[in-house]
Amino acid sequence: MEIHLMRRLVLRELHGRLWHTTHPDRFKRILETGSILPIPEAPNPDGWRTMDGEPYRSYAHTLGGVSLFDFDQFDPESYATRCPMSSWYTFVPYQEKWGAAVWIEIDREIVAPSLISAVDVVTRWNTDKAYRHNFMPYIEAIYVGPLPRAAFVRAFIVSKTESEIRALPLESVIGSGSHPVGDEGP
């Protein structure tokens, strides 16, 4: 499926909810450890700007947090007008160099006590004058601390080699019983 068609399909799933996205291999590790770590144990050479070193790591990492993406009121056209330098489309539906991504829906109520909203991230970034630390304005929220698996609602995988979104079980690792989103599955 062409990437722009897949992007529209994925945006329909993301709309109105809070998400974390990761590489499929990292998803397996998340399920094994039971949480999304603010700074993953495994090296992250393909993370946003992590190769530039400590001073340039993501803003979420400087706060000891996990990046979440809030698509509650997201509209691609109005967002492009408001934030023309933001490149949300480079990770929706997946980062091109990955060729696939896992999206994990996060329960907003469970994470609320440790969540910095997407709007508050912008304010705090400006107040901190943290200009060399990147983030996605108005859509990136930050969960401070390790994000527990208990906050996961569901997960799905999207890939350039498939034409559908596949739901993933949260009880086990990829490859054991995944089925298309909307299917009842086994």
Summarize the entry for a quick read.
The protein is of the alpha+beta class and 186 residues long.
Description of the molecule:
The protein is α+β, with helices and mostly antiparallel strands and 186 residues long. The protein has one domain (3-50, 69-116, 145-180). 26% of the residues lie in helices and 23% in strands. It contains 6 helices and 10 strands; from the N terminus they run αβαβαβαβαβαβββββ. The protein has helices at residues 3-14, 24-33, 59-62, 76-82, 108-111, 118-128, and strands at 18-22, 35-36, 65-70, 100-106, 115-116, 140-144, 147-148, 152-159, 166-168, 179-180. The protein has an 8-stranded antiparallel beta sheet. It has a two-stranded antiparallel ribbon with strand order 2-7. Strand 8 (152-159) and strand 9 form a beta hairpin. The longest helix has 12 residues, at 3-14. The radius of gyration is 16 Å and the shape is globular. The chain starts with a helix and ends in a 6-residue tail after the last strand. Mean pLDDT is 86; it is low at 48-52, 173-180 and 182-186.
Secondary structure: elements and pairs:
Blueprint: H1 3-14, E1 18-22, H2 24-33, E2 35-36, H3 59-62, E3 65-70, H4 76-82, E4 100-106, H5 108-111, E5 115-116, H6 118-128, E6 140-144, E7 147-148, E8 152-159, E9 166-168, E10 179-180
Antiparallel strand pairs: 1-3, 1-4, 2-7, 3-6, 4-8, 5-6, 8-9, 9-10
Whole-number total of structural domains: 1
Mean pLDDT: 86
Number of helices, where a helix is a run of at least 4 consecutive DSSP H or I residues: 6
Helical content class: 25-40%
Order of helices and strands: HEHEHEHEHEHEEEEE
Low-confidence stretches: 48-52, 173-180, 182-186
Beta-strand fraction estimate: 15-25%
Biggest β-sheet, characterized? 8 strands, antiparallel
What is Rg? 16 Å
Distance between the termini: 26 Å
Strand order of the largest sheet: 5-6-3-1-4-8-9-10
* Tally of DSSP β-strands: 10
Oligomer: single chain
| Broad structural category | alpha+beta
Task: Label the overall shape.
Answer: globular
